[in-house]
GNAT family N-acetyltransferase
Amino acid sequence: MEELIYQITPLDNTTLPPYALLETADPSRELIDQYLEKGESYVAISNGSIIGVVVFIPLEAHNIEIKNIAVADQFQGKGVGKALLRCIEEVCKKKGFHKMVIGTGNSSIGQLALYQQLGFEIERIEKNFFLDNYSAPIFENKIQCKHMLILEKNLNI
């Protein structure tokens, strides 16, 4: 099996955001545009193509929220998502942030496992978040996505 070679870099203002990829993690273009405007984006690039993306925004009290993380289907399970999260963790530590927050759906089984493997802890559940904020039902793993699980990771600065 050939090793995947990629680099992670900030998304600059001259490059169009990878909407098709972002929409795999969040079907709302309106919400994506809102957090792209407020946040910072990093992309994983392999052979000139964006294969992964992560977007985070600053919150109050030296915290950040990861609003979107997505990896192209053919590159999932190859460490790209982990590398993006580890990169953001280092960026946030250097910028003096104390905590990273991320939300995922109750049906996002793989993502929930990944976040916990990287040290995120479940903090709370926002009941009916996806029912209240998205017009069409979302299904993953044959489970309706209804509730958002909020996970946090202290950066120990």
Summary: The chain has a mean pLDDT of 93.
